[in-house]
Amino acid sequence: MKYIIALILGIFFIQTTQAQITKVEIVKAAKLNLNVMVDGISHKELTSDSTKRATLKRDSTMMYSDRALLEDVTNNLKAYGNILIVNPNGVTLTGDTLIYTSATGIAEVRGEEVVLKDSSTTLITDRLYYDMATGDARYQTGGIVTRNTTELTSEKGYYYRFQQIVTFKGEVELNDSVKVQHLETDTLVYNTINEVAYFPKKTLISTQDGDVITEAGEFDTKTSTTTSRGETHIESEEYILDAGNVRDNKNQGVGFAKKDVRLYSIKENSYIYADEIEYSKSAGNSKAYGRALMERPGDNDTLYLAADTLISVSDTVNNVKTLYAYHNVMIYSKQMLGVCDSLVYMYSDSMLYLYHDPVLWSDQSQIVADTISASIRNNSIEKMYMDQDAFLIQKDSILNYFNQIKGRNMVANFDSSYLKKVDVDGNGQCLYFVASEKDSVFMGMNKIDCSSMVMVFADSNKLSKMHFLYKPDAQFIPPHELEEPATRLPGFQNRFEEQPTFPVILSRKRRQDQLIPLEKKTAHKATPEPPEEKKEMLLEKGTPKQEDLEIADKLEEE
């Protein structure tokens, strides 16, 4: 964006005199004719030959032509052939015809190629209006502005000197094949006082850092901060961002997005949705808050993590990314549901750590512990670790009871989304309710205390085998001897009603539309290059003759 602003600044900043009527004066001519009548008006006629050109001046601005007609009364000027205007600050203007109105101070230059040029920037159009009194300038029939390897085209261009504003309108397009940047918009405005560029309509910006398409916005050249207003889409090699508003500081490498934000990590194949997201491009970190949601699609399932705040941290040394979730955390997938107060998710090995009152549900099973960690593969649990006060309950599909396993620590193994085995280490306790296989009549409850146990489950997640490894203490209690609260181990809690539902999760997914990346736009020339001979002619046309420059220097010294 900085190169865009440099281009704007380079072309229209022409030194002007104070806003008053200043007479055009004759400097020299090969031949001067007086009282030449044209349309009943008396003129002075200046003509040129091979050694001397028709030369006039307005203050310190020099005007050259093959033939000039200067009205005696109004001081209006018409000049024809090889028009050259030289400003003392080095800006030159060339064309075929010059029409100057003294009362307004406006000079109109016409021609097949009207060229306004300074030391670094060139504007080419076919008609340019320049107010010599105010310094305002405009073109309205299409123009091309070039600076080094950068080219800007637009249907109209305006410079308002008093307001210090430059405006380009109508199919504005900027390209730089060397710096690899491209801009498309309908209107581009630059305020030279606050040094801010505005794009009030839909704009596409493409650079080596990525692509931006926004409904409107501005760029502060002092701070290198881009602020978009309205729907904004940003793409880079690392991420794709959609939001209602975005503020991005290129120098600091940080940004802020708000209003229905969606951030997609290309490397991790994960989405983050939030009301607001702060991000650091240099560090690769982000903070999402306001009903935040992480979505990570897999081969057979999609993992969702919802929380008040999601913080993504990148370890650039080890190339590892970690997601931290804080407060009111919810987990949702086909295989697993969960809640906790805080969570850590390691993208590298898909390890999930749940802290502060964590609860997980898988099918008819509920798992609680002080801390729960799980190994995830293709968004399905492979192994789960329950540390301190582990408690697993399972709804019996036939009886109105919960089978229960309790211990100091547990390790659960899963296969194809089914619970296959649970290892209990320390202070193991188990309640298992038995029904007859023939008619499913309740027969009683097994109660086992054992330091270490192994529970094996069938494909239906139903407990099928139990192994007691060290001094088990078991008893069978028939139905008529079973009294409450004997059907529940100490610490039992039925928390199935706390399971997150998919509509609740989906309500945080602000953008339901499919994310479709922009077709990459590479910097290109907006218009074809003119033939070399025409190019040379334009360059030659825009370069004042040495004798004209010498005259201008002398007049400036005087």
TrEMBL record:
<feature type="compositionally biased region" description="Basic and acidic residues">
    <location>
        <begin position="531"/>
        <end position="558"/>
    </location>
</feature>
<protein>
    <submittedName>
        <fullName>OstA-like protein</fullName>
    </submittedName>
</protein>
<feature type="region of interest" description="Disordered">
    <location>
        <begin position="509"/>
        <end position="558"/>
    </location>
</feature>
<dbReference type="InterPro" id="IPR005653">
    <property type="entry name" value="OstA-like_N"/>
</dbReference>
<dbReference type="Pfam" id="PF13100">
    <property type="entry name" value="OstA_2"/>
</dbReference>
<feature type="domain" description="Organic solvent tolerance-like N-terminal">
    <location>
        <begin position="23"/>
        <end position="176"/>
    </location>
</feature>
